[in-house]
């Protein structure tokens, strides 16, 4: 191929790429309970949809594939879990609004489904829940709080008022935390949630012996404004079919991805 033909083909390829619409994948949250005992459930990949937080937002000790999160649901709860690689667990900060200088995982959800195109956390259905793997005494008792960031929030509720059903523990090379979060916290029921395309997002943070955050990692996502408090980064998610087998869940999940 001569050079000018090659260049014109290259230009056409770029034009096709540049003009292709970008479709967001709708994540399907499968029906499945997690056993809230602080240990990863053996078949967690069948029971829950997995998210890899592979985009480094603040450098330091964070590495690729550092943190993964999981979501599932049953009649009354979301099940949330997080695995983190971490060579030093440090959770001494309980006073900052979002445990910034502890190890943490943030779970954002918009249960009303009106997150699209918003750049502020100002929706009534917007929630940011932050979990730490340990408490300030170094016990495997997760701390949890709700943070309004720059929105109205929900009263900055904490601990058992968010959920008493939470647990954590050490795993090989890091930590694990899981929780059942009742739909009633969000003042929603299964019927309403089944009809909603929700918004979800995750950010994890690392603090080590120094007691100051050294890294933050997030779900890769297109967005506008500040990634830590802008719903423009949130990803669409729907509840999967009620009570199906793991194989059927997989078929539904991949079917949905192909659908776009
Ligand atoms: Ca478990
Ligand atoms: Ca750490």
Describe the structure.
By secondary structure, this protein is an alpha+beta fold. It has one domain: Immunoglobulin-like (Sandwich), CATH 2.60.40. The chain is 15% helix and 31% strand. The chain contains four helices and 13 strands. The strands form two sheets. Strands 1, 3, 6, 7, 8, 11, 12 and 13 form an eight-stranded mixed sheet that branches. The protein has a five-stranded antiparallel sheet with strand order 2-4-5-10-9. The longest helix is centred in the first third of the chain and has 17 residues, at 3-19. It is globular and about 45 Å long. Mean pLDDT is 88; it is low at 14-21 and 255-260. The structure holds calcium ion (CA) (2 copies). Residues 86, 88-90, 103, 206-208 line the site of one calcium ion.
Per CATH, the class reads: Mainly Beta
Radius of gyration, rounded?
20 Å
What is the level-2 CATH architecture name?
A: Sandwich
Q: What is the number of independent domains?
A: 1
Overall pLDDT metric: 88
Beta-strand content = 25-35%
The unique ligands bound to this protein are: calcium ion
Number of DSSP-assigned strands? 13
Mind describing the biggest β-sheet? 8 strands, mixed
């Amino acid at each position: 191929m001569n050079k000018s033909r090659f260049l014109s083909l290259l230009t056409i390829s770029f034009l096709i790429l540049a003009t292709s619409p970008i479709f967001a994948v709708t994540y399907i949250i499968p029906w499945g309970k997690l056993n809230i005992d602080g240990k990863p459930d053996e078949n967690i990949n069948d029971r829950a949809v997995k998210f890899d937080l592979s985009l480094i937002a603040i450098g330091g000790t964070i590495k690729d594939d550092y943190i993964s999160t999981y979501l599932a649901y049953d009649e009354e709860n979301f099940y949330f879990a997080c695995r983190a690689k971490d060579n030093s667990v440090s959770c001494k900060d309980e006073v900052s609004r979002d445990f910034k200088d502890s190890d943490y995982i943030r779970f954002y959800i918009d249960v009303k489904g009106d997150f699209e195109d918003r750049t502020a956390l100002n929706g009534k259905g917007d929630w940011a829940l932050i979990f730490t793997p340990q408490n300030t005494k170094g016990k495997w008792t997760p701390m949890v709080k709700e943070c309004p960031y720059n929105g109205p929030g929900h009263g900055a509720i904490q601990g058992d008022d968010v959920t008493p059903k939470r647990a954590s523990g050490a795993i090989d090379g890091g930590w694990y935390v899981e929780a059942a979060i009742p739909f009633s916290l969000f003042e929603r029921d299964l019927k309403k949630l089944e009809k909603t395309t929700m918004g979800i997002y995750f950010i994890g943070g690392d603090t080590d012996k120094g007691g100051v955050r050294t890294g933050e990692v997030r779900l890769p996502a297109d967005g506008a404004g500040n990634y830590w408090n802008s719903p423009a980064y949130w990803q669409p998610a729907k509840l999967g079919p009620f009570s199906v087998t793991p194989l059927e869940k997989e078929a539904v999940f991949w079917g949905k991805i192909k659908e776009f």
